[in-house]
Amino acid sequence: MKKIAVFASGSGSNFQAIVDAIDQGELAAKVELLVCDKPNAYVVERAQKAGVDVLTFQAKEFSSKEAYEREIAEKLAEKEIEWIVLAGFMRLIGTVLLTKYQNRIINIHPSLLPAFPGKDAIGQAIDYGVKIFGVTVHYVDEGMDTGAIISQQVFECEDEMTRDAIEEQIHKIEHQLYPSTLQMLFTAGAKDPSLQQK
Ligand code: GAR
Questions:
Q1: Assuming Cys at both sites, which of 2, 54, 96, 152 could form a disulfide with 69, CB separation 3.0 to 4.6 Å?
Q2: Ligand 1 atom 3: the closest Cα is on which residue?
Q3: Binding of N(1)-(5-phospho-beta-D-ribosyl)glycinamide: at which residues (predicted)?
């Protein structure tokens, strides 16, 4: 049973999917902590309902990324967190956490990386006019959505699909792909991402 911390900034539908997969016995993990940089985000309410401890912070109240990551790292150590799972956490992870959790920080991104990294990946893909959309789960490194890829799932966009419909389909894929990929990682053990091709 892996002890995990989920980091999120928004509505937290992926946080919920992880909690639900654990409840349904599909993911052998325990969410020990939610770390959130937006104290009013809906994910905080979800965590409270699920009985998960919450650590909120505001980056602007700290002198640097190192300063707030040191505080987060202390809390993670106190709770003996083994893996960090980013679920819509809209900040780059810095050296403090990357060093302590080498190859044990995972992210989900709503595009087929390396296409459309960064913010509003779905909007970027729509503006580009792509026909194939998808989701990527990957290891986190110091870059923006650049770590080694663990799993991907595609879907083909029908011509008449609205942005809402595309987003809904992406979320549906994410809510399956993230828990199942985490389960695969936790049961198979972490592979060294430097051995994988980018
Ligand atoms: C998800 O679509 C996730 O892939 C994306 O934020 C959304 C969060 O939704 N993450 C990124 O874009 C990271 N670069 P949620 O709050 O409902 O889980």
A1: 96
A2: 88
A3: 12-14
